[in-house]
Design brief:
This protein is of the alpha+beta class and 494 residues long. It has 3 domains: 166 residues, FAD/NAD(P)-binding domain (3-Layer(bba) Sandwich); 132 residues, no CATH class; 73 residues. The chain has 15 helices and 21 strands. The strands form 5 sheets. It has a 7-stranded mixed beta sheet with strand order 5-4-14-15-16-13-17. Strand 9 and strand 10 form a beta hairpin. Helix 1 packs parallel to helix 6. The N and C termini lie far apart (50 Å). The structure holds flavin-adenine dinucleotide (FAD). Flavin-adenine dinucleotide binds next to helix 1, strand 2, strand 13 and helix 9. Keywords: FAD, Flavoprotein, Nucleotide-binding. Pfam families: Trp_halogenase. GO terms for molecular function: monooxygenase activity; nucleotide binding.
Length: 494
């Protein structure tokens, strides 16, 4: 059993720091929570797209959706549109919806493949939020039970941290402005206190390292090794720039367009468009990457592009002694599926119950936490690699290399299970369910080699009718919804 954690100190006031402080203060009212941040250093200021789990966090924190959207210039996100990933000129959606039965005689994708009939449209037309996205429609959910689809948000990352900060301070979090310049260690190697540039010291029992890429405690102080994923995910730079809205409706989805040596994101916020070009410097120099980004903006840039450098991977352990790393301090996978904020939330979702159950978590709890976080990084890594390794593009070195690279065993097994038997294998700690995996396989034109004989229980005519009906129903449901702009305006006026 370790020593009791009563005083929690959060280092860093970016998205991770303020999410952690707000959640900890809400869930653990008997603890003291203090956050130290440095305006001089600032926050990374990117991270505009999220995952539906964020709505659970907001529910637990009692956040009102309209207030949050107003404060963060937020919009709704139904998923991601991938352009040019398999070959140039093609696109597909990965949205937060379901694609019917995934196995058995009613297996939707199985019948779709078996019929192989162009008049049925795309598999995406069998998924309600993909239809909504392609039509630019949006509507909130009548209830959280039996929901026909799920959704997330886009927001301004800097405004989100400010929004959470206000909430955290209301919930009793103490904020200290200051730069941490040194760390006082405990005899067992843990952290006893943080020394600030002005001479003050912050003592604590548990330290949450949310210091961003500098990983002040987990990396610089405790030297926890970094597990490098860059041989699978070679992107290591991003240019980010906001641009003027282009006068068209705000898209209720993120767009990810594959480019020569990476991909570009486009995110509609209510006041501007967020853009970025994530690329591998091994294949493209920074200046050309900047030009490629600026060339494909829909509107005038509103600032000078900003360059960010990173390495994909994670700390071997995210919880070491009395330090838990969250956010960029614990690791980073490229932002293709908007999973960083989700991983912060997931870390908190596992940490908080441990702290609620035991005032002094021991080695077993810490190991369990670390295993879980490692698995999540690995599962999401595999899912992101899937977007690359199935490409049919051979027009530049990056695409040729990712199409032939050796895959992690866990992913190779999944690809084998899908190709041989049409099985969407799921491991423990998956971040993405089988419907998401199917959306990428289908979007990339990657199908099993054989049809399941069980599908013969339905005649071709019956299967065709079922698919046509589902497609027509979703088209009608989406067409009856307001446009995303109109719905958002209504919510913001509440
Ligand atoms: C190009 C790019 C695009 C991204 N897009 C997405 C996305 O779409 N969706 C998503 O979920 N995530 C995305 N992310 C990740 C996302 O930006 C982060 O997960 C999120 O913003 C959390 O950042 P953070 O709080 O860990 O770090 P930061 O925002 O960097 O905050 C670090 C904090 O630590 C403080 N600090 C550092 N050193 C000290 C010190 N010595 N003393 C005191 N304070 C200190 C800083 O002042 C700051 O307050 C993206 C990341 C990149 C690089």
């Amino acid at each position: 059993m370790g020593s009791a954690y009563k005083r929690i100190v959060v280092v860093g006031g970016g998205t991770a720091g303020w999410m952690a402080a707000t959640a900890l203060a809400t869930a653990l009212p008997a603890h003291t929570v203090e956050l130290v941040e440095s305006e001089e250093i600032g926050v990374i200021g990117v991270g505009e797209a999220t995952f539906p789990a964020i709505r659970n966090l907001h529910r637990l924190l009692g956040i009102d959706e309209a207030e949050f959207l107003r404060a963060t210039q937020g919009t709704y996100k139904l998923g991601i549109e991938f352009r040019d990933w398999r070959v140039r000129g093609e696109h597909y959606f990965h949205t937060f919806g379901d694609l019917g039965d995934l196995s058995g005689p009613d297996c939707l994708w199985g019948h779709f493949r078996r019929l192989d009939d162009a008049s049925l449209g795309t598999l995406g037309e069998q998924c309600l939020p993909s239809v909504m996205a392609s039509m630019g429609r949006f509507q909130g959910l009548a209830s959280e039970e039996n929901k026909p689809f799920n959704y997330a948000y886009h927001f301004d990352a800097v405004l989100y941290a400010v929004f959470l900060r206000k909430l955290a301070l209301q919930r009793g979090v103490r904020r200290t402005e200051g730069r941490v310049v040194d760390v006082r260690r405990r005899a067992d190697g843990g952290v006893a206190g943080l020394k600030l540039a002005d001479g003050r010291e912050l003592a604590g029992d548990l330290f949450i390292d949310c210091s961003g890429f500098s990983a002040l405690l987990l990396g610089r102080t405790l030297n926890e090794p970094f597990i490098d994923f860059s041989h699978w995910l070679p992107v290591d730079r991003a240019w980010a720039v906001p641009s003027e809205p282009d006068g068209t409706d705000m898209t209720p989805y993120t767009r990810a367009t594959a480019l020569e040596a990476g991909w570009a994101w486009r995110i509609s916020l209510s006041s501007r468009i967020g853009n970025g070009h994530v690329f591998a410097s091994r294949y493209l120099d920074e200046e050309r990457a900047r030009e490629q980004l600026l060339r494909q903006l829909d509107g005038r840039p509103l600032a000078e592009p900003r360059l960010l450098r990173f390495t994909t991977g994670h700390r071997q352990r995210c919880w070491v002694h009395n330090v838990v790393g969250l956010g960029l301090a614990s690791g980073f996978l490229e932002p293709l599926e908007s999973t960083s904020i989700f991983l912060i939330q997931s870390g908190l979702g596992h940490l908080i119950p441990v702290l609620q159950e035991s005032p002094a978590p021991g080695a077993a709890e810490i190991e369990h936490y670390n295993t879980g976080m490692t698995r999540q990084f690995e599962r999401i890594r595999d899912f992101i690699i899937l977007h690359y390794c199935l490409t049919a593009r051979r027009d530049s070195a990056l695409w040729r290399d990712v199409a032939s690279m050796e895959l992690p065993e866990t992913l190779a097994f999944k690809l084998h299970a899908w190709r041989q038997a049409g099985v969407l294998h799921q491991y423990a700690w998956e971040g993405f369910d089988a419907h998401s995996w199917l959306a990428i396989h289908a979007g990339m034109g990657h199908w099993p080699e054989r049809a399941d004989p069980g599908l013969e229980e339905l005649t071709r005519a019956e299967a065709s009718q079922a698919l046509r009906q589902r497609r027509a129903r979703f088209a009608a449901v989406a067409a009856a919804m307001p446009s995303h702009d109109a719905y958002l305006r209504r919510v913001l006026a509440r």
